[in-house]
Design goal:
Elements (H helix, E strand, L loop, with lengths): L1 H14 L3 H14 L6 H16 L8 H28 L19 H25 L4 H17 L12 H22 L6 H22 L1 H6 L5 H31 L11 H11 L8 H22 L9
């Protein structure tokens, strides 16, 4: 009788789904998309929507388009992160010392990473199609910007591999700045306004600081793997200077805007103490490893304060009001 109860107990345990295993797998997939880095695409997209709301076409503003635009852009970013993980491992760049452990430690298989990337790209395409159906912008204009961003997210490490030939910084500056802001603005208003690029640049520089800190941290291992990044080309000392410029130049822009146009533009200056703290960590080898995530965290709060400023400030005459 006891043997029968034991058998039934074992059988019933096998039939139940392993919740712990499922939760672990979900957390692993979330880790694969690098959620800490997503402020780089989220904030510029929100900024573009905010500028559209403040523009002359604000009467046509659609919250649904805003949500679909955010979903579309962020899922492309997530997919690009997954592609990055895959090709860094396949090309032997990620090793036992690498920060990204998913494939190195066999937490996920290569097939699982490929499937996740494909799912994210597919989801982004669904979001884009849904958004374009209700947007007043021409489909071909939206498609040109969208597929330009999508292909760049793949080619960053796949195919040409811009990251490996010292062009990754250029790609990041364009995508996570002007392109995202322009895409969100165009989706809402139905037309292109190249002047939105001026508003995008402070965010683009701050986002580039995330990438540059990551590449500077990994410069030794990247050089051994035979790839070339800007951090390797210019060396450690120049990398420190460049990081400081990327981090603090936007604040200088806000001071000028604050004095000339509206004090609301001084709002992001609240984050300056944290920026100085991170810059100090960047120059210290023992704390260098945490700088990319700290910079991304700064980028998020810095960007949100900038968006709030754009909501209430008297905007420069770049955008038709």
């Amino acid at each position: 009788m006891e043997e029968e109860e034991t058998f039934v107990s074992k059988t019933s345990n096998k039939s139940k789904p392993d919740k712990k295993s499922s939760n672990f797998k979900l957390k692993t997939y979330l880790s694969a998309i690098r959620p800490w880095s997503l402020s780089g695409s989220l904030v510029p997209t929100i900024l573009g929507s905010t500028l559209a709301y403040r523009s002359a076409e604000s009467s046509n503003y659609s919250p649904a388009i805003c949500l679909l635009t955010v979903f579309t852009v962020v899922t492309v970013h997530c997919a690009g992160n997954v592609v990055n993980t895959y090709f860094d491992f396949v090309k032997g760049i990620d090793n036992r010392k690498a920060d990204d452990r998913l494939l190195v430690d066999n937490i996920l298989t290569k097939d699982e990473v490929v499937s996740l990337g494909a799912l994210l790209y597919f989801s982004s395409c669904v979001g884009f199609i849904s958004m374009s159906l209700i947007s007043s912008a021409k489909m071909e204009h939206l498609a040109l910007v969208y597929f330009g961003g999508l292909s760049s997210s793949f080619l960053y490490t796949g195919g040409i591999g811009f990251k490996y030939i010292a062009l990754g910084d250029v790609v990041i500056l364009i995508i996570f700045g002007p392109l995202s802001v322009l895409f969100a603005f165009m989706a809402q208003t139905g037309h292109v306004d190249w002047n939105t690029i001026y508003f995008a640049m402070p965010l683009a520089l701050n986002t580039e600081a995330i990438l540059h800190s990551n590449n500077t941290r990994d410069a030794v291992d990247d050089k051994k793997a035979g790839i070339i990044t800007l951090a390797i080309v210019i060396g450690k000392s120049a990398s420190h200077i460049l990081y400081a410029l990327l981090l603090f130049t936007p604040y200088s822009v806000f001071v000028v805007f604050g004095i000339k146009y509206s004090f609301w533009f001084l709002l992001p200056l609240i984050t300056i103490p944290q920026a100085f703290k991170i810059e100090k960590q960047f120059r210290n080898e023992s704390t260098m490893s945490i700088v990319p995530k700290q910079t991304a965290k700064l980028n998020f709060f810095f960007g949100l304060l900038y968006v709030v400023a754009c909501c209430f400030a008297t905007l420069p005459s770049f955008i038709k009001m």
